[in-house]
Fold each of these.
Amino acid sequence: MEDLEAVKVVLPDIPVLANTGVKHDTVAEVMRVANGCIVGSSLKVDGDTWNAVDPDRARDFMDRAKAAR
């Protein structure tokens, strides 16, 4: 979060995306700073990057992201 916050301070008018470590438990905190995020394994079945996307996990994640906005 420190790096993300530092970039946003230097570039306040430029969209900043978080590209790693964004999970269900951290998305609200990340979205308070970032304009968006890149998400991978958090949306997959059992959180495994090689599995298919789990619609329930994806829906829950997006609900949390939207609530943080």
Amino acid sequence: MRAARTILGADPPPTAVLAFDDRSAGGLLDALVRAGVDVPADVSVVGYDDSPLSRLAHIDLTTVSHNPRELTGHAVAALVERLDGGRTEHREVVVAAELVVRGTTGPSPNPTSAG
């Protein structure tokens, strides 16, 4: 709520906000709607983690999916390698994130001022 108050009091106000996670984005959406801000016409909101919350019809949150199925597959494979083969060396795995566009994002309200 404190972050929402900061956003609502900003001059000029932001045209987009990326929240830490979908739960935080949901709280921000609630505060913005209660303040009469039109999401996404006035400000776009994006969460992170593509949680079940983001898919609720009344939230319809644009979010970033970190591909939990692929992450789980890598984690299980690493565990099996460690248990079966005794692998101890460090391994880094990079999994591509995916932007899941839903109803809380739109074009910038003032595209000519974008820098």
Amino acid sequence: MAQFSMRIDDGVKERAEIACNALGITMSSAINLYLVKLGNEMRIPFEVSVDPFYNIENQKVLARSVKQLNDGHGTNHELIEVGE
């Protein structure tokens, strides 16, 4: 068997371990599943795309909005109760 070593962000590893534990598999098993599927299908076995939520302009708008709220310039909305 070959040995595989890689570096990943600590947070990514932690979240992946939580997911693996919930699925009842090891991280090694999960990576093996991915590599088998990659090799069999000759493609990345999931969609790879950029979520527009994380684009730079949107993050700037969100940061400004958070700053306004933290500075006390937000709008207070009353909760609307839905009747029966």
